[in-house]
Amino acid sequence: MADEDTPTEVLDLETIRALPKVALHDHLDGGVRPQTMLDIAAEVGHQLPAGDADSLATWFFEAADSGSLVRYLETFDHTIAVMQRAEDLRRIAREFVLDQAADSVVYAEARWAPEQHTRAGLSMAEAIRAVGEGLREGVRTAADQEQYITVRQLVTGMRHTDTSRDVAELGLDHAGDLVAGFDIAGPEDGFPPSNHAAAFSLLRENLGRFTIHAGEAAGVDSIRDALVQGGQRLGHGVRLIEDIDDSGDLPSLGPVAAYVLDRQIPLEVCPTSNLQTGIAQTYAEHPVGTLVELGFNVTISCDNRLMSRTTLSNELHQLVQAFGFDRVQLARFARNSIRAAFLPHTVAEQIFAEQIVPGYAG
């Protein structure tokens, strides 16, 4: 415990920006630079809702800030429209890496759905290769700027389509293109993980890594289903709070919350995005405070940096302000995240020892 005369560290945004961070839940199509959208849209003839980068960024944030996941997802019509050519996927993947590195992210996973990027004639395999090339280019460019980051891609099946097994198989076949795992995304309510049991079975049989969006737009039953399918991480998972009764002197956990806590299943919590889709009204009311207090394995990410007009540094800064988290807790988030990363153990531990631990010392 610090001496009462020792000044409390001020964790302002700039201080947090310099700390090493890990981004596990960040959608490639949710982090496109507005100017990049404008450039590509002009080439491919896609009409955007605004004509300059600042106005376009504002449109995305306001359109996503509706309290509805369905409305939130509609904004992706525009980003996906400019991600149909191989050169555009390479550019956006490269910029994904550079934007993460500029925010002192030392490891990031870019998730995206290959089936949504075949309108201009690319196959899903060609799209995966293009993203892999772009990620590698970004890592090299960042290193030239003395920003060292490791990046992987997660291929995603869409909950409301029937291609998830094919996508999972492609992911397994393209590990050499930096594919580290699989996910399902899209409208959660009414499209349970069990609809994609064949994909998850294939992944389990091949010892593949996968996370499952659950506990965002649907509640505890969705989380239970994700766990039954073998989800190794939970995308969001914050509606676990509905399985926790904290009205008494001691919190009482229901069976799903207890299972997640006891097995320390990582939660990919995205605070600003959760506010936009109606999980809470303010950061101080967000379930993350209770989840951290009870010892859940919480990681923090952005979800969609464009739609939430955010960075990982900003997400952490908002939580510092809302809950008084200190440097130790931010280090714990980074540790939780890198140890939940879909990386070989030795690589994850090297990043932890060489980048994260020194970054939080002092």
Automatic annotation (TrEMBL):
- Keywords, A to Z? Hydrolase, Metal-binding, Zinc
Keyword Zinc tagged: yes
Pfam families in alphabetical order: A_deaminase
Which cofactors are named for this entry?
Zn(2+)
Name the enzyme group at the top EC level.
hydrolase
A GO BP term here is: adenosine catabolic process
**Superkingdom, natural source:** Bacteria
Q: Which residues are the signal sequence here?
A: none
Q: What is its EC number?
A: 3.5.4.4
For this record, the Gene Ontology CC terms, alphabetical, are: cytosol
GO MF terms here are:
adenosine deaminase activity; metal ion binding
Adenosine deaminase domain: residues covered: 20-352
Task: Name the protein family.
Answer: Belongs to the metallo-dependent hydrolases superfamily. Adenosine and AMP deaminases family.
Protein name per UniProt: adenosine deaminase
Provenance organism: Enemella dayhoffiae
